[in-house]
Amino acid sequence: MRQHVNPLSKNFLEIDPIPPLYEIFENPKSSLHLDVGCASGDFLFELSSINKNWNYLGIEIREKLVQTANLKIKNREYKNLYFSFGNANNFFEQPKNKILFDSISSISFNFPDPWFKKKHHKRRVIQRQFINFLSNSMKKRSLIFIKTDVKELFEYMELTISESIKFKKLANKDFQYNKSFNPNKIQTNREKYVLLNQLKVYESIYIKI
Ligand SMILES: C[S@@+](CC[C@H](N)C(=O)[O-])C[C@H]1O[C@@H](n2cnc3c(N)ncnc32)[C@H](O)[C@@H]1O
Fold it and tell me: Does the pTM exceed 0.90?
């Protein structure tokens, strides 16, 4: 069992601005997908090697994982992938990071830490304030994807996002994945584990209106 990182610790107040997109991506104008809590980045490595016409950015609070992932990019010369270290909730407070919203087409929250105890709910990555911020910053028609195997967390995330009138829930069955950041429906590591153990995956997609 890994030790969960407390995102409210003051170690995570500072976050590095990511370099300008033209320095990290070969085609900086391609659609950008942001994966929040990307862990070691396996999911994004797979996506980026298949979908060269998208750029992928992972945010992860465990610094070692980010360092290793960015080293792997350098060695193998991925041209549409980058990882950033820090608490995603503070990420956009960096004025230089706000500019990313011009490029972001979608954001995924895949199997976020559940923080089961009520007194720890404030450590969950999806917070009302964060959703408010995203609702005011994301471009119209950009998307949010949420996925978890924890029903209570799913209900909490759905409630928090649906409180914003600027996000509308899409019907999963009608969603055209072939036009999204994940046309082949690649699974994250947690998702593979959950499916192998025949647990249920709860998921929703929201569009910014
Ligand atoms: C349960 S793991 C899921 C990893 C991956 N998304 C998957 O589906 O396999 C949750 C990840 O989110 C990271 N995380 C938790 N809170 C975060 C935050 N506020 N900002 C960025 N990453 C966070 C954790 O360190 C962990 O790697």
Answer: yes
Pick the catalytic residue from 16, 35, 42, 113. Answer: 113
The model's pLDDT over 168-197, given as tens digits with 9 standing for 90+, comes to: 999 988 899 999 999 999 999 999 999 999
In-domain check, residue 5: no
Residue 112 sits in which domain range? 10-208
The β-bridge relationship of strands 81-85 and 54-60 is parallel
> In sequence order, which ranges of 63-142 are alpha helices (DSSP H)?
63-76, 88-91, 95-98, 128-137
Ligand 1 interacting residues, C-beta cut-off 6 A: 5, 7, 36-39, 59-62, 87-89, 110-113, 125, 188-191
Overall residue count recorded for the chain in this entry: 209
Q: Is 113 a catalytic residue?
A: yes
Sign of the alpha-carbon dihedral angle for 35, 40, 43, 44: positive
